[in-house]
Amino acid sequence: MREKGVLLNNLEEVVWKHNDKITGETLDEALNAGIAPDDIRHALLQGFEHVRRRLMSNEVSIVDMLLCIDRVTEGLNSISGGKATEEGIPLVIGVVEGDPHDLGKNIIARIYKTYGYRVFDLGRDVPGKLFVKGVQENKANVLALSAMMSTTMVEMRSIIQEVKVKSPDTAVIVGGAPVDETLAKSWGADGYAETAVTVLEETQAAIERVREGIPW
Amino acid sequence: MDREKKTFRAAGAILKPIFEGHMPPMGLIPDSLLDGFARFSSFRGHLLRLTNIERLVTTLRHREPDHVPCCPMLYGASRRLAGVSYPDFALKPEATAESLLAAFEMIGGEAFAPAIDLSIEAADFGQQMVYPDNSTPHPDYAHPLIEDVSDYRRLERIELKEAHRMQAMLETCRILVRRIGFKGAVSGFAFSPLGVLSMMRGAEHLFRDCVNYPSEVMAALQTITDVLIPYVEAQCDIGVLGVTLDTLFASWSGLSRELWEKIEGPFVKEIAGAIRRKGYIVVVHNCGDAPYFDSQIRFMEPTVITFARLPDDCSSPKELKKRYGDQVVLMGYIDTALLSYGTPYDVMEACRKQIEDLADGGGFILAPGCEFPPNAPLENAMAIVKAAQLYG
């Protein structure tokens, strides 16, 4: 049996190398060695952080991040027994109506899940009123909106405005290729994430802005 | 004797389009002749206003014309000028051509490509489509043609003559080349093989498959390439200036550099080679984040690269110009969000900055980073043209 430190380092490495053949074996070995699930979770997230940092410096691509999240998700599911968490910040996410592109949204939703958010994924091509309903029903602290088409991104503005009236304590964060920070601010959002790399920090900042009542 | 025959054949290939009233294949014209033409036009541009074609050819030979040429990339937006619905714009060549001609005549610019949407080729392979009234056509992602990995090898080659949307695109090119003549330049357009495949599989699944099942993916890419080669050759035969290949996934938004070079590189190399063998120029369009300029140049040897973001190995526009300005003509890269929500003056300011950074010494075409947003204010397209004339 290898030492705990070595096993955790290996686990971290198979995540950022996104090697699906050995993730399971390494995970089993760590569990059989009696390593606490929290330590395993930490190692998995460290592996993911490694990819996130490399993504920031353009050393890896979005595909690497996608596969890395696959490995982290498998690992987290193994240690939780596949049970969905009832804890964590409730967050509603979806792609606005008319837009069928959900690759970006799917990656972001899984990053949120990985980092402990309680994610309610409404999918793609979602009508505005369903976002408002989703936020109210799930008492969401965060609404994450995505648009990949300039023809449909205009819908974001009216969703933000309605959510701000009906659920003023919900932080709204937006992203997607045709959107930028200036637009997000002008529509009344609380945050903008340019890429998957920065989404966690930007979401945290948006939550704090809303909580403290600080305008963006 | 063979050499004489070749010379006569090349002379015929150059003169025939000229007599027909449109641009000849630039690749068949000797470099010395093109450079002489560009030098003379550059000099003449100091004194007189050049024609659109003179301005473009001068730029393509990396000489400074009277002002930078521009391409406002009005595709879906052009239909608003001609009162054409989106489905008609996508499916009826006469309506497409009418819209694009309206944009060329009313807004201006030197060059354009009938880039109708990115699903043309996939639709002909049998992918189910959605044609919204006010937005770009797209695949029905709930019903992908490639449902699982085993479907890659089942993808069947289609005959160009039976490919309705590709035939409509060719007819659009035919009308445009005939109507534009020497007043401007029309480029052909094709989505790259991996792009076409993403329309039939969905990007998320395709990305995983590229890593886990590369040989299956590459089998489908070969089938698609075998269809795309006659397609781009047919565009060349119509008399376009060149053909634009959209290689979105050669960027940080797609595959890693190594994976792209392995998976798609060899196929786009074949397609680009077919275009060049016809004597036409290759234009690469990549609106992804951090595109891999050097890999794309190595595989496709393009004359022009149109881009939305700086390449992965450049941190500023000045560095981009220094590193790649001698190798390719740079075309871009006005932010499309600005075009949607900025004022015309904001757009002109952004254009002015880009011209300052990239136009020195020629080899720069002002353009949006991607298609002009279909529902954006048309004044912003006019602002691009005005900025090119005023600051270029």
What attributes does this structure have?
heterodimer; A: 216 residues; alpha/beta; Methyltransferase, Methionine Synthase (B12-binding Domains), Chain A, domain 1; Rossmann fold; 2 domains; five-stranded parallel β-sheet; 9 helices; 5 strands; 10% strand; elongated; B: 392 residues; TIM Barrel; seven-stranded parallel β-sheet; two-stranded antiparallel sheet; 18 helices; globular
Q: What is shown here, in short?
A:
The complex is a heterodimer of chains A (about 220) and B (about 400). Chain A is α/β, with parallel strands linked by helices and about 220 residues long.
Written description of the protein model:
- Chain A has helices at about 5-15, 20-30, 35-55, 60-80, 105-115, 130-135, 155-165, 180-185, 200-210; strands at about 90-95, 120, 140-145, 170-175, 190.
- By secondary structure, chain A is an alpha/beta fold.
- Chain A has 2 domains: about 5-80, Methionine synthase domain (Methyltransferase, Methionine Synthase (B12-binding Domains), Chain A, domain 1); about 90-210, Cobalamin-binding domain (Rossmann fold).
- In chain A, strands 2-1-3-4-5 form a 5-stranded parallel sheet, sandwiched between helices.
- In chain A, α5 (about 105-115) links the parallel β1 (about 90-95) and β2 (about 120).
- In chain A, α2 (about 20-30) runs parallel beside α4 and α4 crosses α5 (about 105-115).
- Chain A is elongated.
- The model of chain A has no long low-confidence stretch (mean pLDDT about 85).
- With about 400 residues, chain B is of the alpha/beta class.
- Chain B has one domain: TIM Barrel.
- Helix content of chain B is about 55%, strand content about 10%.
- In chain B, the strands form 2 sheets. A 7-stranded parallel sheet of chain B has the order 1-4-5-6-7-8-9, with helices on both faces. Chain B has a two-stranded antiparallel ribbon with strand order 2-3.
- Chains A and B meet through α4 and α8 of A and β3, α10 and α16 of B.
